[in-house]
Specification:
This protein is an alpha+beta fold. It contains 6 helices and 23 strands.
């Protein structure tokens, strides 16, 4: 079914029965997609973004849809409506990103330098020999272990065999408001912020640490750029490298009514999270929403609550939170890492989805920095 796949690996379930680690599921257009055991097809197509969930109650809820809504409705709007409730999504959601030509070749500058003056050649990542030479393996503080190397090599084998990987549909949220729980990929969750790159990486790895069918890792620049190539060339075909304003939560989406981001759900107002049924351009003109504190016209949104920030069924790859990756700047501090995707405190033309921003230490934290897990099928 999938190019390069020679066999299907098997597990033994609780009833001592042999079950496959992956199954072929046909999308709305009849194209086969590899779906791991214990995950379920929700909707979407290979070109518009196949969405899966780890909760069986979500199975086939949007099978007839190519564009899958977040599955979240503002709590005061559902009002016991069983039809609406039936379409809410309960599980962690991921989107299939098809990859051709090898994941190790997926990194790109997309022809435009929006990296704060640094050149694309200044950046390296997990499959580069120079990156590995500068890691903790060689005692120079890059925080890459032998287990990390094995994980990303396994990812490369899986992606190239199955023809893709799964990216979290949303920026990482937490299973509790204290942000010390497990990672979730669900709508209307407060993005997990003020987290170090080291902890973000560990949280991603813990997400499915008990699974034998999938492995969860922090995004690398290879998978980030593969996701952008998918968004640029298929489905919604967004501008990922020049100006991502129209499909991201950036400060220049507001407050003009003709460029205003609309949403319903949680948002951060001067550091305090509030819930609102409908936020439109007029909300900026009057009342408590006219000013949001230190960063005028900056607004952090909960995950998946603004329909216009979705591209190929993936939310907030452009704007909202800067996101930690494994990428490194060769010219940066010894323990630096690179953020991707831009943030809500920048314009979309300055920090489009492809932009890179270096941070000097893996222990740095900030209210504007989050992260996102990825999944690959275990071989």
């Amino acid at each position: 079914v999938w190019s390069g796949v020679q066999e299907v690996k098997w597990d033994i379930n609780d009833e001592n029965e042999r079950v496959p680690k992956v199954k072929a599921v046909l999308d709305t257009e009849g194209v086969a997609v590899p779906v791991p055991t214990d995950f379920y097809y929700i909707g979407g197509t290979v070109d518009t973004g196949v969405v899966i969930s780890d909760n069986e109650s979500d199975k086939d809820k949007y099978r007839t849809y190519s564009s899958v809504p977040s599955g979240y409705s503002y709590e005061n709007d559902i009002d016991g409506d069983e039809t609406t409730v039936a379409y809410l999504l309960e599980g962690n959601q991921f989107v299939w990103v098809p990859v051709t030509g090898g994941i190790e070749n997926a990194r790109s500058d997309f022809g435009i330098n929006k990296n704060g003056g640094a050149n694309f050649a200044d950046y390296i990542d997990v499959f580069d020999a120079e990156y590995r030479d500068r890691t903790a393996i060689h005692n120079t503080g890059r925080s890459l272990t032998f287990d990390d190397v094995a994980d990303y090599e396994s990812m490369k084998t899986s992606v190239n065999n199955y023809g893709g990987f799964y990216v979290a549909r949303y920026e990482a949220g937490s299973s509790n408001d204290a942000q010390d729980g497990t990672v979730v990929s669900q709508a209307n969750k407060k993005p997990w912020d003020k987290i170090t790159q080291t902890n973000a990486k560990a949280k991603c790895e813990d997400m499915y640490s008990e699974s034998s069918s999938v492995k969860s890792l922090l995004m690398s620049s290879y998978t980030w750029d593969a996701t952008l190539s998918f968004i640029q060339n298929k489905g919604d075909k967004k501008d990922v490298s020049n100006d991502s304003t129209s499909w991201g939560n950036y400060k220049n989406r507001r407050p003009t009514n003709n460029n205003t981001i609309e949403f319903s759900g949680y948002y951060a107002n001067n550091g305090t999270w509030e819930n609102i049924a409908s936020f439109t351009g007029s909300a900026w003109a009057t009342g408590t929403h006219a000013s949001i504190g230190t960063y005028e016209n900056y607004l952090k949104l909960a995950t998946g609550i603004a329909p216009s920030t979705k591209a190929n069924n993936i939310y907030d790859i452009a704007g909202n939170m800067f996101e930690w990756t494994t990428e490194v700047s060769k010219n940066g501090a010894t323990n630096n890492r690179v953020l991707r995707g831009g943030g809500y405190n920048y314009n979309g033309s300055d920090r489009p989805a492809s932009s890179r921003s270096g941070i000097d230490s893996v222990t740095y934290t900030n209210m504007r920095i989050g992260f996102r897990p990825q999944l690959f099928i275990q071989m």
